[in-house]
Amino acid sequence: MTNGSRLQLFDVRDPAAPVPLGDTPSRSTSEVVIADTVAYAVNFNDASLELFNIRNPTRPVPLARFATGAQPSAVAVAGGRAYVVSSADSKLQILDVQRPAAPRLLSSIDTDEAPYDVAVVGTVAYVVNHGRNSLQAFDVRNPAAPRLLGRCDTGLAPFSLAVAEDRAYVNCPGSDQVQVFDVRNPARPALLGQIATASRPVNLVVRGSALCVTSAGEEKVQVFDVRNLKTPKLLVEYPIQTIGLAVENQVVYALDKDKNQLLLLKLPAAPAPK
């Protein structure tokens, strides 16, 4: 996790009693992603991607710093590559990070205005664009020459996305909803349904049939059962103002902005079908 100026690591093997392990300075970090024993942090104000060796979590070690486009907002890591979107430059950059101490730029491609999040599944990178209200799909099979596959309009001011089981879930704080798109054919994303949320949803995570959403407007974490998009069901709400969200092994990890705390919440089980 990060508080913006430091990368912090915790032992959460016992979710009821997380233990701080180590930390290291970072630079106005907007997102952290872990792949194997490396942490990737994009720094919004510093226009950079930092890589840390976390093999020993009590002593994270800086490995490299790479200059990105202006105001990088998100990073995804897959197959030895890092995908960074820069909101001020409206670009998707693809980096070779097989040697984490020496990241290397492979290519860069223009996106719609103000990309805010990126997710990679197989050979496709999905990007949501806050300034253009759009979802784009890029073919990254050849990382040196990515190409646009398809795009579609979204709700207002899309902020984040998750892709799971041929669906793309897009948070739209401008229209207080999560939209769900069928991306079985990435060249033609198709709207499947939309889920009304609390005011200004910003972060989301999908695990199985559970959709977890944070709300900036009403300071809530909501969990929905999305097995049936025609009738999504709200399972539980937690009154927390969060600045980060993750889910692993039926545990919701939420950063409480007001209390500067990492909170661990049990993910509720979906009700059995009738």
Question: Layout of helices and strands, plus pairs?
Answer:
Layout: E1 6-11, E2 19-25, E3 29-35, E4 38-43, E5 48-53, E6 61-67, E7 72-78, E8 81-86, E9 91-96, E10 104-110, E11 115-121, E12 124-129, E13 134-139, E14 147-153, E15 160-164, E16 167-172, E17 177-182, E18 190-196, E19 201-207, E20 210-215, E21 220-225, E22 233-238, E23 242-248, E24 251-256, E25 261-266
Antiparallel strand pairs: 1-2, 3-4, 4-5, 5-6, 7-8, 8-9, 9-10, 11-12, 12-13, 13-14, 15-16, 16-17, 17-18, 19-20, 20-21, 21-22, 23-24, 24-25
Describe the structure.
The chain has 274 residues and is mostly beta strands. It has a domain at 71-196: Methylamine Dehydrogenase, Chain H (7 Propeller), CATH 2.130.10. Helix content is 0%, strand content 58%. It is built from no helices and 25 strands. A 4-stranded antiparallel β-sheet has the order 3-4-5-6, with no helix packed on it. A hairpin with a 2-residue loop joins strand 7 and strand 8. It is globular. The relative contact order is 0.09.
Keywords:
Methylamine Dehydrogenase, Chain H, 4-stranded antiparallel beta sheet, mainly beta, 0% helix
> How much is the average pLDDT?
90
* Count of helical stretches: 0
Describe the main β-sheet briefly.
4 strands, antiparallel
How far is the first residue's CA from the last residue's CA? Answer: 39 Å
Write down the CATH topology of the domain at 71-196.
Methylamine Dehydrogenase, Chain H
Query: Which strand order do you get reading across the main beta sheet?
Result: 3-4-5-6
Structural class: mainly beta
Please write the CATH class name of the domain at 71-196.
Mainly Beta
Strand residue content: over 45%
Overall spatial form = globular
Number of strands: 25
What integer value in Å does the Rg equal? Answer: 18 Å
Using the 3D structure, state the CATH architecture of the domain at 71-196.
7 Propeller
